[in-house]
Amino acid sequence: MTTATRSERFRQLAEAASVELADASALDALEWTARTFGESWIVASNMQDAVLIDLAVKVKPDVDVLFLETGYHFAETIGTRDAVDLVYPQVRIINAEAEQSVADQEAEFGLLNRTDPNRCCHLRKVIPLRRTLAGYDAWVTGVRRVDAPTRANTPIVQWDERNGLVKINPIAAWSDEEFNGYIAEHGILENPLVQAGYPSIGCAPCTAKPLPGADARSGRWAGLAKTECGLHG
Ligand code: SF4
User: Contact 86/114 with Cβ under 8 angstroms?
Assistant: First the structure.
């Protein structure tokens, strides 16, 4: 099958599923994903919590999990990743890294996260993500509509034009109450920084506590116009 034929086939599949699964539960969306894509799908996690991983292992115990190892994470985030590895031993965690180490990048360009965060995210997140996703037909994300105004229209299934594969957002419709209820009810692993007041966790240099009453993602790249890494929008 040529690349163009494959893309067209998956685009049509995603468009049909977007309608059929518009109101699907998270587990129904994941069961469809496992049925449709077999081994060729991966769950992205920023290791803020293991909600999505816990749901995914119910339909595929040895699911692949993508972690963007930017080299700039909080120690707590790396610790959460390692805890996921212990709690879900069948899961295969894939650490997607940039071509340059942090030390080499800083030697060549300085602190891009301060001077040009879009370029830093491109080098350390967007390119490693794209390279990893090239080996799959679908990816699953934990994006929720309540995360930020930019995510308010997130569908359960969509065609990801930029990366050329199907994107499934099983918990897109979950409220904060449903999300936190799942964590409490199932004893799900959570990054300790969440309880320390960080409701949205990215790389350490670009994550601050939001001001009281501000939206959860407002602590990401605080003080800059940037609100997204370039992974989802
Ligand atoms: Fe760089 Fe910050 Fe983007 Fe991480 S979030 S890749 S440190 S700019």
Answer: no
Nearest one of 115, 139, 201 to 10, comparing CA atoms: 139
Q: Report the pocket of ligand 1 as residue ranges, CB < 6 Å.
A: 70, 72, 113, 117, 120-121, 124-125, 202-203, 205-206, 229
CATH number of 3-219: 3.40.50.620
* Domain range list for the chain: 3-219
Beta strand pairing status for 92-96 and 165-168? unpaired
pTM of the full structure: 0.92
Q: How far, in Å, are 49, 109, 228 from residue 233 at the CA level?
A: 22, 26, 7
**Which atom of ligand 1 sits closest to the CA of residue 204?**
7
- Over residues 95-114, the pLDDT tens digits come to 999 999 999 999 999 999 99
